[in-house]
Amino acid sequence: MNIVVNAHNTFVATGGCTFDPKKPTVVFVHGSGLDHRSWALQSRWFAFHGFSVFAPDLPGHSLSEGEPIKSIEDMGKWLVKALKVAGCESIHLVGHSQGFLVALEAASSLGTKLKTLTAVASASSIPVNEALVEAAKKSPADAADMLLKWGFGSQSQSGVSAVPGMQPIGIGRQIMSSNPLAIDLIACTRYKNGIKRARNIQIPSNVILATEDKNTPHRFGLELADILNAKTTSIDNAGHMLPMESPKKSLDAIKSFILKNSE
């Protein structure tokens, strides 16, 4: 579906079902340079199991208009406004990598509407290698190649795919090459509020990690989980691109937590 946020058309994937704001809504926030497609399996499952799904392309990404937002803080404000425009009443917020930092920023402004918070392959801060940032400024495609070499685990690098006939590395490269990857990476590097925000979270929280994550190493995810007092799941043989690389296992970890906290 399309909604208008700050006078710009915003594309929001709904998992294949009509969006109903009166249902509990699972909000999926994508990572740097990505879009709604990174949540394809997860979105579809929730949409067909009693939830509404709200998986936006951030401004300037893929199907959404507008200028890319340059800070995590402002991305969080944008997300709160987008959810208000959509009329969401009960929210389960899920963020991958940068998307979780955005979720942290949004959380305090959502009040009692926010029921749960889930981090996927993330941490309280995500400093980015300067060489990667410089590469992204010159060529998003070249930077995507660098990031995806680091971002997927060993099995994916050898050609294993959770989705028959599809190669997640190739899909990731296609998405990132057309999106404002440098702006997103710089926003991650500059974000310093994560620990403060995480310490203020009082709702049930969930942290899903990958043992081969080179972008936000496993130990940093465990530190985040400790701050949040969160349920923690570690997925073996997978890297930073968990939603795309290990969609079934990441879905299982997300849905078991949300279903338990929706009763």
Plain-language structure description:
The chain has 263 residues and is of the alpha/beta class. Helix content is 44%, strand content 17%. The protein has a single domain (2-260), classed as 3-Layer(aba) Sandwich (Rossmann fold). It has an eight-stranded mixed β-sheet with strand order 1-2-4-3-5-6-7-8, with helices on both faces. It is globular, with a radius of gyration of 16 Å. The model has no long low-confidence stretch (mean pLDDT 91).
In short:
44% of the residues lie in helices and 17% in strands. It has 12 helices and 8 strands.
Number of helices: 12
Mean pLDDT over all positions: 91
Task: Please mark out the parts with pLDDT under 50 across 5 or more consecutive residues, or reply none.
Answer: none
Number of strands: 8
Which strand order spans the largest sheet, edge to edge or round the barrel?
1-2-4-3-5-6-7-8
Please summarize the sheet with the most strands.
8 strands, mixed
Helix content: 40-55%
Based on the coordinates given, report the CATH architecture.
Answer: 3-Layer(aba) Sandwich
Intertermini distance: 28 Å
- Coarse shape: globular
What order do the SSEs take from the amino end to the carboxyl end, as H and E? EEEHEHEHEHHHHHHEHEHH
Report the sheet-strand fraction. 15-25%
Name of the CATH first level: Alpha Beta
Class from helix and strand fractions: alpha/beta
Fourth CATH level, the homologous superfamily = Alpha/Beta hydrolase fold, catalytic domain
Taken together, the total number of domains comes to 1
Please compute the radius of gyration using only Cα atoms. 16 Å
Multimerization state: single chain
- What CATH calls the topology is Rossmann fold
